[in-house]
């Protein structure tokens, strides 16, 4: 299989999150999880002062652009290019150009792969993020996206939650 790279997609201004949601829905519907690995709208934390009140807010780092980690082929190109709100890939003509490692480094995108020693059915503890100190049972592993799905007890119900490999450890 070909290697996945990060590509930049140009969108209508203000449609970045909508494009991200539409692409993720299409990935799920067409079962392209192994070809389109991740869709990101890069954000940065900024301090705003309004009416004398300081407030930390999230702002888009590149308004009008979305980053996609994907294996470039005719299917994935077609899916992304024909998503509502997308005007095209960044690159000469219709040929998308992948980002280099040097271009990705300032964006905080790490290319390292984490190897895990747990399987479906194992109990894990979340060690970071919103679900920190939560114990769950592994339901699904996705090494390509470096994510796993666990079931956690939320308000007395088993609820599936998707978490990064880096945020969990085996019990």
Largest sheet: 5 strands, antiparallel
What kind of assembly state do the chains in view correspond to? single chain
Distance between the termini: 34 Å
Structural class comes to: alpha+beta
Strand content: 35-45%
Radius of gyration: 18 Å
Give the helix level as a range of percent: 10-25%
Q: Topology of this protein?
A:
Blueprint: E1 5-11, H1 16-30, E2 36-40, E3 43-50, E4 53-60, E5 65-70, H2 74-81, E6 86-89, H3 101-104, E7 123-126, E8 135-142, E9 147-154, E10 157-164, E11 168-170
Antiparallel strand pairs: 1-5, 1-6, 2-5, 3-4, 7-8, 7-11, 8-9, 9-10
Give an overview of the whole structure.
It is built from three helices and eleven strands. With 171 residues, the chain is α+β, with helices and mostly antiparallel strands. It has a five-stranded antiparallel beta sheet with strand order 10-9-8-7-11, with no helix packed on it. The chain has a four-stranded antiparallel beta sheet with strand order 2-5-1-6, with helices on one face. It has a two-stranded antiparallel sheet with strand order 3-4.
Question: What's a concise summary of this model?
Answer:
The chain has three helices and eleven strands. The chain has helices spanning 16-30, 74-81, 101-104; strands at 5-11, 36-40, 43-50, 53-60, 65-70, 86-89, 123-126, 135-142, 147-154, 157-164, 168-170.
Annotation keywords:
171 residues, 2 domains, four-stranded antiparallel beta sheet, SH3 type barrels, alpha+beta, 16% helix, globular, five-stranded antiparallel beta sheet
